Each structure stands twice: as C-alpha cells, then as structure tokens.
Task: structure prediction
Amino acid sequence: MTQATIYSVPLVGPATPTVMSQRINNNFDAIISGHSGPSRPSYAVAGTVWEDTSVAGSVKFYHYDGSDDILLRTIDTINNRVVPPPQTFATVASAATADIGAATSQNVTVTGTTTITSFGTVAAGTSRRLVFSGILTLTHNATSLILPGGANIVTAAGDSLEAVSLGSGNWMVTSYTHAAGVTPRPNATSGAIGEWVKIGPGAAGAAIVLPAGGSWAYFCFVFNSSGGAINNPVSGSGVAAGGSTLLAGSGTLRYEGFGWKIQA
Result:
C-alpha cells in the first residue's frame, strides 16, 4: 500500500463502476498506509501527515503545514524503537521572568546576566534543559522556583540544569551541573563556585581558616596529634564568609575539613 496516484473520485460522468471502485480503493489504501512513499504526496494539503519511506530501516512521520514538512518522529524499524525529532538550541535572554516554557525547543541557551526569579508559565510536566552563557543568579523560592539545596545558585558560563514545570508558573530544578565539575582541590587557597576545597591540615594547635572571598559551606573535624582519643571528632559545620576562622588553635589538637564555595 502506498500513496494514491489520484486522490479523488470522478465528480462527473460517465465513469464505469470499475473506474470508481479502483479510485476508491486507491484512496483507502493511501489512508491506511499513512500516505507512505519516498516523498510528500502530490495531493497533500495543509494538515496532511505522511510517512517518508525513502531510507531503508526507518520511517519518518511528517506534518505538512502547507509549505514545509515538519518532522514529528522517526520509527527505527530495525531496532523497533521511536526516535524523537532533533531539538536544536533556542535562545532565551535572562530576565526576572525568563520564559523558557515559550521556547520552541527543549534545549535552551540562557544569555545575559540578569537575576532570574521565574521561568514563566507553561503546562505541568513540560521539561527544559538549560545551558547558561554567563554569570547570573537563580533565586530560590520554595513554591515557584525550587532549586537543589533550597538556596540561590550563581551560574557560570557552561553550567547547565534540567527543570520541570509544576504548572501555574511553578518550576522544579531536578538537576544542576557545574561546567567545571565539583572537583576536590587538596590544600588549595581558593575555589570556584561549586568546588570543594580541602582546608588544613595545619600544625598541631593551628587555627583552621576558610579561603578568602565569597561565602562557603564547611565541615570540620579534629585529630589529637598526641595520639589520645577524641570523643567527638566532628567539630563544626555551617556557612561562613571567606577568610573566617572556623576553629582556633588549641594545644595538641589538629583541625582539618572541607569547604564548598557557594557564592562569589
């Protein structure tokens, strides 16, 4: 079954019953075979959906809008699977409301440096993958813009995230990836946002101090250089400004920990 040679029936006579039945059968065959063929059928009108069988092992479904064929999906008939159409990157400028739901693709590049407090309103379940071209702030909101960790995020060029609409203008960011990764940097003196930095170990009795600049989340623990037991080795955790002294030196105690830079 394939496309009809003539997609119509005679409207004026004379036409024999045989001609009529053949024409009708051809039209029905075209319908039940999805108007399949190596190219768009000549009788296609705006709204026609047809199947492209020009490549062995795959069937492409197109929607003809009157001027262009829009790819809907591809059927891989060798591996029995459905392949969605390619999603090229759309661009959305950063703004208080960066309307990613209105983008024409699931993949979106966000440009600019304006703080974002909303991703706009779109149907619940709509998903988007974002890549940021620069530094801006995503403002956490427990209802309308739910971010991992429940805190604001300062982006860097190349950072990416995945977000899902909850409906009514509310979004949840389900994952966030730093372009630089989250990389341990033993004994580093500074860190990029999102990087873990080892702080210490210092000499016995030395204080433990965060690297300068920005804000840091930290976790510290303590050792006894003399070999004695420490009943509670966890000494503290929290958030503090860069350059802060977390624990003052004390006798034979040696402090060590990790800091995570969360804001520039």
Q: What stands out?
A: The longest strand covers residues 253-263.
